[in-house]
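Box S1 | Example of a co-folding query
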Amino acid sequence: MLRLSKLTDYAVVVLIRLSEGGGECARLGGEPVQTSPGIALATGVPEPTVAKVLKALTSANLVASQRGARGGYRLVQALEQITIADVITAIDGPIALTACVDGAPGACDVQNMCAVKGRWDLVNDAIRQALTSITLAEMRVASVPMAFRLPAPDHLAPPDRLAQGGVPLAASAAE
Amino acid sequence: MLRLSKLTDYAVVVLIRLSEGGGECARLGGEPVQTSPGIALATGVPEPTVAKVLKALTSANLVASQRGARGGYRLVQALEQITIADVITAIDGPIALTACVDGAPGACDVQNMCAVKGRWDLVNDAIRQALTSITLAEMRVASVPMAFRLPAPDHLAPPDRLAQGGVPLAASAAE
DNA sequence: AACAATCAGGACCGCATGGGTCCTGTTAAG
DNA sequence: CTTAACAGGACCCATGCGGTCCTGATTGTT
Ligand code: FES
Ligand code: FES
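Box S1 (continued) | Returned holo structure for FE2/S2 (inorganic) cluster
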């Protein structure tokens, strides 16, 4: 259903957690790194998965790592600078809706007579635009101390329409 | 990689083919229906797949079907009225990027302490906007008489020459 | 110097999902 | 009555994702 991977979802969670750098691991004055077990504990995501996500994010230069004892991860950009497209690209690879985008030969069997050959690029670009226009800062629920939400959320119809007010909601997807 | 299903891709091809209604099956004056074998032949997509796509499109009321002999399919809207979002919804189901959108309970394991709970809706809406803003008419390559390519690659693996020649191969992969 | 903590980078497996085929009705034209 | 075509499944298989784990490399600590 056009769904992106759950890993990407986790990546967003992890990154936001990383932005709240003043965690329990902030020992070095200037570099409040966080360890993957720590993040896993804080977010509830299983540790191996967190580690995997962090590695991918490191490869994409979205986070920096400090090896060795007392090591960990830290952001290299502010949340405002990180777009959803960045995260998706880091985790899921380049954003390519169909196999027919770009000039991959042999990707599509019917490209000989295809009427929309290469036209998906249009859609692809639109998606990229939409994804690039949203930053992680907009994803984070503004000033919500999530310590409250520990108990299980209601089954359905959660009355948490609270955050609706403060978000600009750019929605500049149209062009 | 955030890819949508190949079926959706085929659906677009089929729909566009359907819009060029003046096919070989246009017997009835007012209702130029096309059969799925005919569309399969014209597009190069295997017949069973075409049939499957057509069925899904019929369920979504994007095309109308005429049963019985001399039956077939026809569009119910102009290409300009059909958005990519419509097609995706018809084939792949509702557009929901992550399992955490809407209030699906039990979808996400970490929703208890999640910092972005429900925030994916933002991204989701942006995607929907982007997908809704593009119609099939924009997807169709304007005035490309694909009648050239009719020689059927039915079997498979077209012997290496015809496919290579005429393809522009834009290779506009940005990043 | 030895140790421990932590990241790096894979290999690995199980499972869900999508892609594709096929079969059996049902409908309607000829 | 026969045939052409859709309807609606069931079905199998390959792909890829989600998740785990293992073996190094690196660096602070003791
Ligand atoms: S090239 Fe793949 S559908 Fe057109
Ligand atoms: S509820 Fe699923 S990641 Fe937040």
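Chain B has seven helices and two strands. The CA atoms of residues 159 and 165 of chain B lie 12 Å apart.
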